Amino acid sequence: MDSGELLLVGFGVAICLAGGWLWVSRWSKVRHLLDTPTSRIRSAAQGYVELSGILHELAEVPPLQGPLTGSPCLWWRYRIEEYHSNGKQSSWRVLEQGSSERPLRLADATGECLIDPRGAEVWPARRQRWSGNLRHPRGLPPTGVLAWLTGGRRYRYTEERLHAGEPLYAIGDFSTVGGGRQGFDRQASKMQILREWKGDYAGLLKRFDSNGDGQLDLAEWQRVRLAARLEAEDRHRLASTRPAQHRLARPAQRQPFVLSSHGEEVLARRYRWQASGGALLCLCGALLLASRLA
User: Fold this and answer.
1) For a designed S-S bond to 125, which of 18, 222, 242, 261 qualifies (C-beta 3.0 to 4.6 A apart)?
2) What is the enclosing helix (H) or strand (E) of 93?
3) Which residues contact 246 (CB under 8 A, 6 or more apart)?
4) Which residues contact 121 (CB under 8 A, 6 or more apart)?
5) d(C-alpha 125, C-alpha 143), whole Å
6) How far is CA 289 from the centre of its chain?
7) For 109-160, what is each residue's pLDDT tens digit?
8) Sign of CA dihedral 138, 142, 146, 149
């Protein structure tokens, strides 16, 4: 087998593997979206849940501003690319990109939930793309005749945003603190407090070294453990009286974490198309391999 044949075989293996991965990963997302029922925030179970509601601004916190347009928003993602041309080949190279990490406040008819967007696959409805001759654009993109007079193709800018008042579909790991909903592991809580106290051993001696010999004997350690248990129970009692605070974040397991301005059906349809494309790509790779190895 010559080098050309080996190159074709390698190409066939690569597109077969890439298509297979795309097929399996996207179909897995479709199943997670469709198999997870939509929950109400107040009654949602702890763990992997699907929520749907309206975005609101955080209390006493000014809104963010899009880094390229300066538009007020609740979340942003941007990318700056530079155009490169070398003879017959041309491409866009990414120079800068990033996204905001401030929590989002989602509300439905039953309550509110803070969403940590870090690690999420976000599909916002607001997306702007334009070109220019400056590395960093100055505010909103020009329109009409002004865009034609000042436009350029050296740099391309993309900014996506989530705004207050927009609907949001979210699926991820849900947890609640306060409101009496969290469980209480007395032993684990006591051990945590003991570790905190041992970090300040001088303070521990000052509180429990009753005979002043500079160390804690067996009886004194018994008092330390009893005090730690009572402290754990007091902390749990105090946490239970606080209003429930709901949070949604990236799951620890490899489950989809998706935030979208579009509904479940739109997302599922998009993932189905991507899965179909992956299956077709995998089939093309398999056919190429079969033709080369036959």
Assistant:
1) 261
2) strand 89-99
3) 41, 44, 111, 112, 113, 114, 174, 175, 176
4) 256, 257, 258, 259
5) 20
6) 38
7) 999 999 999 999 999 989 999 888 888 887 666 665 555 555 557 899 999 9
8) positive
User: Six-digit token pair at 71?
Assistant: 């538009």
Beta-strand relationship, 245-249 and 64-65: unpaired
Rg of the chain in Å (alpha carbons) = 28
Nearest to 104 by CA among 44, 169, 50, 11: 169
Residue 117 has which token pair? 């967007």
Residue 282 in tokens: 């995998």
DSSP state at residue 174: E
CA distance 120 to 122: 6
Helix-helix angle 218-241:186-198, to 10 degrees: 120
Domain assignments of the chain as residue spans, ordered by start: 3-178+243-293, 186-241
Q: Which residue has the tokens 């299956």?
A: 279
Q: Looking up tokens 């005979």, which residue turns up?
A: 211
Q: How far apart are CA 166 and CA 228, in angstroms?
A: 47
Instruction: Give the torsion through C-alpha atoms of 116, 119, 125, 127, to 10 deg.
Output: 120
This prediction's pTM: 0.69
Which helix H or strand E contains 229, and what residues bound it?
A: helix 218-241
